[in-house]
Amino acid sequence: MQDVLPELVSVSELNRLARGLLERGLPPLWVSGEISNLTVAASGHAYFSLKDKGGQIRAVMFRGRVAGLPFRLREGVQVEAFGQVSLYEARGDYQIQLDRMREAGLGRLFEAFERLKRQLGEEGLFDSARKRPLPAFPRRIGIVSSPSGAALRDVVSTLRRRMPSAQLVLYPTLVQGEAAPAQIVAAITQAALRQEVDVLIVCRGGGSIEDLWAFNDEAVARALAACPIPTISGVGHETDFTIADFVADLRAPTPTGAAEQVCPDRQALLAELAQREQRLRRAMQRLLHSRMQALDALSARLTHPGQRLRQQAQLLQRDQARLASLARSAVQQAGWRLERLAERHARSRPQAAAAQAGLDALAERLRQAMRRQLAQAALHQQHLADRLSALNPQAVLQRGYAIVENRKGQAVRSPDALKQNERVTLRLADGVTQAEIRHPDGGQRQLDL
């Protein structure tokens, strides 16, 4: 170190070097101790010391971390805190900056809670499929709680107010301490064996995690799971959760909440009943009024059978007269239509002789037109044949001409296209012959056949 640092350093540089050594040399760690000299600044940051019998260290926890603590910081509390050891350079104070904190011993409780929760969850004790609905109108309600606890008084008063007709059965038990789990299991088992209640409330008031620990017991959880009676758990405050909450068929935030969920409110039911009675009364009045109007209408239509027969006879006579009149009118109209149709038929009947004469004239015109068309077609055909004959090379050959073709069968049009001793073909009118090109001294090409 003396080889690297200058001979003289300032206090600030020394504190900075010491801070770096502390932060690099010590990783973040858990420290247990007692809170003392606690000061919470206006900013919300907490400054205190952690001490034990052999020493102490300054500690700081900033506002955001303090707000997230599950308990209130206070003097003399044994805690387990996690943070980074450092040095506050402005004063040269050796301290630990804390990120997390829990009351001493709670770490082991939380680990046990999570371990049992995971185990029972894997066994299916928390599955929603096994949860049973609570009865809508329970006649007898069982309560597993302490006889002297405030939770029981809250539950009873709430049930008496909401459903006075329900009978309450208490299964007394301790709800805190080492003997509490066994007594809670015995109370649940007793209720299950007696089968005298429709629903079972398991409850106690709020407290610390140690106070509620009896409801995190595995035996209590398994007794709740095996209970044939629908169960509701109302343990602690709204933020408290126990294993019993997860196993029970329904979890209530508080004992009072459990009492409110286990049965309907009598006053609300009476109000709803009154509303339904009023709606039914109005519906019956409307129905009676409608029926009375229908009865009045039927009474007005009711007549003596004799009078009714006479009315029907009169109606029958009238209908017969109308029917006869309609029949006569229909026959008359049919006769008129028949006469009109006969006249139209007579007017539209064709004259056979005139039609035949017209047909013969048309046939003669058709024959004449066909003869003219055939004559014109014959003349046109002869004209085309003459043109085709004039264009036929064979006709030219008939007049004594010949076509000279080279070896490729191409017609030779110029003497310059012929070479000495070249074999050519002469195409005549009656056939072909071979010839050979000769160039005498005069320069003119000759054919030797």
From TrEMBL:
Pfam families: Exonuc_VII_L, tRNA_anti_2. The keyword Hydrolase applies. The keyword Lyase does not apply. GO terms for cellular component: cytoplasm; exodeoxyribonuclease VII complex. It is found in: Cytoplasm. Residues 10-102 form the OB-fold nucleic acid binding domain. GO terms for biological process: DNA catabolic process. Keywords: Cytoplasm, Exonuclease, Hydrolase, Nuclease. Its main location: cytoplasm. Heterooligomer composed of large and small subunits. This is Exodeoxyribonuclease 7 large subunit. The gene is xseA.
